[in-house]
C-alpha cells in the first residue's frame, strides 16, 4: 500500500512538472503572435494612411467636375438671359415703332377728316364765284353820277343799292364758311395769289404793281380758291 501511495505521488509530481514546462514553452509563442499582430496592425494603418490621400483625390475629382458643370450651367443661363434681353429689346423697339406709326396714322386721318370738313364746300363755293363776279361787275358798271345824291334816277339808285346788298350778303355767307375775298389793288404782284391777264407800262408806277383788278380773288381756309385776275405794270427797261 505504501508503494501505491508513493507511485501516485510520483505521477502527480511529474504531471505538475510537465504542466509548468508547457506553460514556460508556450509563453514565447504568444509573444511572437502578439508581435506579428502588432506588425500587421501597423502595416494596415500605414496602408490606410497611404490610401487616404488617394481616396481624397478620388473624392476631390468628382467635386471639381461638379464645380465645372455648375460653371457651365451658370454660363449657359447667363447666355440665355442675354438672348432673352436682346429679344425683349427688339420686341420693345418694334412696339414703339408700331405705336409711332399708329400715332402718325391717327394724326394723318384726323387731318384728312378736318380737311374734308373744311373743304367740303370748295366746289360749291367755286361755282358761286361767278355769281359774285356778275354782281360786282353790275355794281362797277353803273355811272357814279347816276347814283349820286343829286341824281333824280331813283329807280337806278334803288336797283344799285339792292344789287350791292345782295353782293355783300353773298360775301358774308362765303366768309361764314371760311371763304374770303381779297382785292390786290396797288399791291405787289404775287404769282401765288394773282393771275396777270395783261401788262401795261405806266410811267410813275413801280413795275410789277397791280393797277387793275378785273376779278377779285378768293381763299378758303388759307388756301387759294381762285387767284385774282389783274393787270400789272410792265417794266420799261
Short description:
The chain has 237 residues and is of the alpha+beta class. Helices cover 67% and strands 14% of the residues. This is GrpE protein homolog.
Key traits:
disordered N terminus; alpha+beta; 3-stranded mixed β-sheet; single chain
State the end-to-end distance: 194 Å
Number of strands: 6
Structural shape: elongated
What ranges have pLDDT less than 50 throughout 5 or more consecutive residues? Answer: 1-7, 20-39
Helix content: 55-70%
Rg, alpha carbons:
65 Å
Estimate the strand proportion.
Answer: 5-15%
* Secondary structural class: alpha+beta
User: How many DSSP H or I helices?
Assistant: 3
The order of strands across the largest sheet is: 1-4-5
What composes the largest sheet?
3 strands, antiparallel
- N to C succession of SSEs: HHHEEEEEE
Average pLDDT across residues?
78
Organism: Linnemannia gamsii
Family: Belongs to the GrpE family.
Keywords: Chaperone, Mitochondrion
Subcellular location: Mitochondrion matrix
Amino acid at each position: 500500500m505504501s508503494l501505491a501511495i508513493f507511485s501516485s505521488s510520483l505521477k502527480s509530481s511529474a504531471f505538475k512538472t510537465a504542466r509548468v514546462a508547457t506553460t514556460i514553452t508556450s509563453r514565447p509563442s504568444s509573444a511572437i503572435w502578439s508581435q506579428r499582430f502588432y506588425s500587421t496592425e501597423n502595416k494596415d494603418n500605414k496602408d490606410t494612411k497611404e490610401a487616404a490621400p488617394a481616396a481624397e483625390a478620388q473624392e476631390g475629382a468628382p467635386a471639381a467636375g461638379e464645380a465645372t458643370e455648375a460653371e457651365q450651367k451658370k454660363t449657359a443661363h447667363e447666355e440665355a438671359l442675354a438672348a432673352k434681353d436682346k429679344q425683349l429689346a427688339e420686341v420693345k423697339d418694334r412696339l414703339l415703332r408700331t405705336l409711332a406709326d399708329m400715332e402718325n396714322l391717327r394724326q394723318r386721318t384726323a387731318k384728312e377728316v378736318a380737311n374734308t370738313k373744311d373743304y367740303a364746300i370748295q366746289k360749291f363755293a367755286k361755282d358761286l364765284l361767278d355769281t359774285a363776279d356778275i354782281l360786282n361787275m353790275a355794281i362797277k358798271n353803273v355811272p357814279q353820277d347816276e347814283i349820286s345824291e343829286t341824281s333824280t334816277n331813283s329807280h337806278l339808285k334803288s336797283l344799285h343799292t339792292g344789287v350791292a346788298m345782295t353782293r355783300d350778303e353773298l360775301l358774308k355767307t362765303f366768309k361764314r364758311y371760311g371763304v374770303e375775298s381779297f382785292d390786290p389793288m396797288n399791291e405787289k404782284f404775287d404769282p401765288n395769289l394773282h393771275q396777270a391777264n395783261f401788262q401795261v407800262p405806266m410811267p410813275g408806277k413801280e413795275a410789277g404793281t397791280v393797277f387793275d383788278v378785273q376779278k377779285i380773288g378768293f381763299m378758303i381756309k388759307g388756301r387759294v380758291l381762285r387767284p385774282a385776275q389783274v393787270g400789272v405794270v410792265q417794266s420799261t427797261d
